[in-house]
Amino acid sequence: MASVPGQEMNSREQRQASDHEGFLAHRNMRWLKIAVTLCLIAITSYLWIDVTPRHNGGSWYGYTLGTIGLLLIVWLSLLGIRKRTMSPGRWSLKAWTSAHVYLGLALVVIATLHTGFQLGWNVHTLAYALMMLVILSGAYGITVYAALPAALSNNAQQMTRKEMVEALAAIDRQLETAAQPLGREESDLVIAALEQDTFAWGIGARLTGRYRKCATIRALSYFASDWSRPVGSEEPKDKVRALLGRRKSQLDQIRRHMKIKALLEVWLYVHVPATFALLAALTAHVISVFYYW
Amino acid sequence: MPENYRVAIIGSGPAGLSAAAHASALGLTHVLIEKTDHLSDTIFKYQKGKHVMATPSNLVLRSDLDFDAGKRETILGAWDEQIAAGKVNVRLNAEVTGITGETGNFIIAIKGGEPIHAQAVIMAIGTQGNPNKLRCPGADLPLIQYQLDDPGEYYDEHITVVGSGDAGIENALGLAADPKQNNIVSILNRGTDFARAKSANVKLLEEAEKAGRVIVRRETEPAEVRPGELVLDTRDGQEAIRCDRIIARTGSQPPRGFVESCGIEFTGEDRGAFPRLSPSFETTKQGIHVIGALAGYPLIKHCMNQGYDVIEFLNGNLDLKPADEPILAEKFDALPGVRTVDQWLETFRANIVILQELSPLQMRELMLDSTVAGYDAGEIIFERNDPGSSMFGIAEGSVLVQVNPDDPSVTVPIEQGSIFGEVGLISGRRRGSTIRAAEPTVVMELSRNAALKLIATTPSAARAVNAISIERQLLQMFGSGLTKEDVAEVVAASELVDIRAGQVVIEEGAEDKDVYVIRRGSMIVEKTIGGSPVFLSYLPAGSYFGEMAVIDGSSRTATVKAAIKSQVVRFPGEAFVALLDRKPALRQKALAEMASRREINSFIESRKDSFGSAVDMYSETARFLIDNGIGEATDVLLIDEKLCVGCDNCEKACADSHDGLSRLDREAGRTYAHLHVPTSCRHCEHPHCMADCPPNAIKRGPDGEVFIDETCIGCGNCQRNCPYGVIRMDAKPPPKPSLLSWLMFGAGPGPGEASYSWRKKAAEKSGQQSAKLAIKCDMCSGIEGGPACVRACPTGAAIRVSPEKFLTFTKLAEDVD
């Protein structure tokens, strides 16, 4: 049907072209391959090399693994800096994330082999436990990052957060007008719904999406019990019911958005503080090891 | 007998004021006529405290009035003072309704006043025009007003707003905003929906209507205005409503009609045309002069200089050298040999064919927007795939076009006097071939705006550029081995056709036999498979289509329609067939391309049977992207919402890479099948933002990026012209504390764009409040590593794509599932 002018890339286009690959699949899973190789080398050498009396962190082999693990931990924790430093250069945060994920998981093998399976109630095991906590929270992070973005997008229905809040405010303005003819008791229900702060809820409600004591639901259940008139009638109570229904579904969208966002972010509140704790415990671990050498 | 002034100046903007001041200084009898009750209405209407820029900075100001960059109030105040001190004869509140008479005795009719007589007229009325009046009986009653300065002024009134654009809706909402004002506000709309207004405004209006604050009357027009009453034509007949005030916001009439009614000719029919002017600003109507924005010079400094110059010319000083002389002298310094500015201008004008009809004044104007350069034999002027939308003219020497990218020795010469680079100008795409100087050569490079203005205002130049560009495009498309003579028949039979967005050029199953070349814009190819249209491919400018039916003698196999407003070259299939018959190599090439196209089509068709929903999804996605401006984009940011966690690191990275302000809004914008088009520049082939930039500050850079340079004056035209809302007006904030001090001590607002309040406070504290300027994506040009939004995305959700690479089946089928 047609001919299209030449499409070969020049250097400038290459500079701009970005591949469409998620962080897990980055460069054909390059960092997964590197991490697996690293683990395999560690496991083989662990089985191969005979350390007497038994494998432990204090042998030359244990020090080697420990050094690798330490360097990895320090480097992995630098992701937070990298993310916030918008310096020029040919780096990509996606590549960093990809490496962070796979090398972080590889730490499970490397650090465990470093311990030689000698665990106890001491600062060394504390560092190990904190590290596992960081990795576990990170594993949760990987799972939600892989699973939830699509749900976030589906729920948004092309609306921005601002638009969602504005849509709610628009319904509220109409609700206020429509509720004017109602009696005292009934309008109190509507006022309670209008006055309830959309965002002043606890972390529990936000994460579960269950909002007990939601005044909108309460008001709706009161008005929804009366279906004596035909749908769409001009009776104030029916108008209020319809508007409360719209308020509820708008609220639901906002709450679902907050829930997904919370699930996407909550693990960072474990991951990041635990990393700082890990770095502190790690420092104590290293100093004590060398002090008692 | 009333006084017959030596000169009457209509319009008191910068141009008119400067002319009047100079006339007064020279002692010429004069009158300055102004429609409103104050001087310089356009600048007067700027918002309070707006910073007015004085570009171009290298142009000297030649005027009896002072002007330098500064606050609106300072500038207006200084002018008012100087006009009073200079004893300028000003007539305010005088609206000119017509000009009759001849040079030596013009009669200027004033609405509701005595006519003014003058020997010469200077029109400096700008391009704002007059508001459209209501077209019904009673349209001149005093209850009608055409502007609403402060909606808070009116109480207890029945107010009707006429007009369904943004201005009308905003006025209606403003009047109804405060219930305590107790106004009954109605808004009339001739149609059923508010298609011309921004969707946000329409939403607010519908909401106000539901809440009963505004009465919206659809399919209703004013029929008659009576004191205290408005008669309406509604769908169900006439109806009279109480009405104390009418706000009419039905757009404005460009001044062209008025100017033409005075006997002045324009250079062409299209909207961009200007009055035809002599070197001394005289129009085709002897004795009437046009200066300022109406003459095509929108910058304040240009206008003021012209005001001075036109009075000098009228006063008999015809040797006056324009104020731009030193700028031009500097430009020509780079050229070999020693010649005066006038000699160089004459060399370019006489030697370059498309410039031969220009006056010396037009040459100067054109040269200001152009650059000149000398090249030695063999030097490269531009390379294949360079972005560039400028056009070149060869003043001396000649150049060679490298037609075969793989073999630099295959070249075609372009001789002295001709042009090159016009394909980039017209299609907005990258350069098709490398061009070298064949001998010592002097060329003139016309910027995109200068070239477009030349084409719009000089018919001979337009014809020459069109003929050359069609011929070149055919030669380039059909590949090497063809000569001008080979395509002469096709060129002669071809015609240019403008296509609306969405218009069908070829209909599937039709029997017509024309062949088309896309000159600008882009097309999409669709085929009906199993009852629904399936998107087959995207054709950028420079492609040809329609040849299959000609070669096969079959009916059309697919529908081709415009993705955006486009222009195609149409030529009859017979001419194409004749060309193929003469050139077997070309036939081979065409057949090979047809075969590969068929292969893709049949592949998609076979998929449709087995994976119907995937193909539908792909078609829908392609259509969605085209609807969202990807069809005219060159490089666009997309967000894969299956990967996006909403961290907004892209926005933060953008702000931190560019003066602390983000140029993209990730959340806003449309989404289809988890593919999100955020509010971010698409770097259009023919950028809408460039259309009306007074200082020509919007340019296309070396990587194809459309960017705004430092000469921006903050007028906001580009923001209004961008259909995608990607340009913002904001002041550059002072620098933030470093990331380290934020991390360690919590100093400053942290990464990303600081809140408005922080920026405002910081600017106040630093004492340097900068002007609000236009801000948009420049694709991080000059920043190593490329676009920050993509680099800073932790999950790989942000990608930048170009349409011709992304809108293909393989790409979409693999990326969208």
Features:
A: mainly alpha, 2 domains, 13 helices, 1% strand, B: 817 residues, alpha+beta, FAD/NAD(P)-binding domain, Jelly Rolls, 5 domains, 7-stranded mixed beta sheet, 25 helices, 43 strands, 25% strand
The secondary-structure class of chain A comes to mainly alpha
Instruction: Give the chain pair forming the largest contact, with residue counts.
Output: A-B, 51 and 81 residues
Q: How many distinct folded domains of chain B?
A: 5
Q: Look at the structure and give the mean pLDDT of chain A.
A: 89
Radius of gyration of chain A: 28 Å
Number of domain units of chain A = 2
Average pLDDT value of chain B? 87
How would you describe what is shown here?
- The complex is a heterodimer of chains A (293) and B (817).
- With 293 residues, chain A is mostly helical.
- Chain A has 2 domains: 25-84 and 91-152 and 268-291, no CATH class; 160-265.
- Chain A is 71% helix and 1% strand.
- Chain A has helices at residues 11-16, 26-48, 60-77, 79-84, 93-115, 123-147, 149-156, 161-178, 184-195, 203-208, 215-223, 236-265, 268-291, and one strand at residues 2-3.
- The termini of chain A are far apart.
- Chain B is built from 25 helices and 43 strands.
- By secondary structure, chain B is α+β, with helices and mostly antiparallel strands.
- The longest helix of chain B has 27 residues, at 584-610.
- The mean pLDDT of chain B is 87.
- At the A-B interface, strand 1, helix 1, helix 4, helix 5 and helix 7 of A face strand 32, strand 33, helix 17, helix 19 and strand 37 of B.
- Strand 1 (2-3) of chain A pairs antiparallel with strand 33 of chain B, so a sheet runs across the interface.
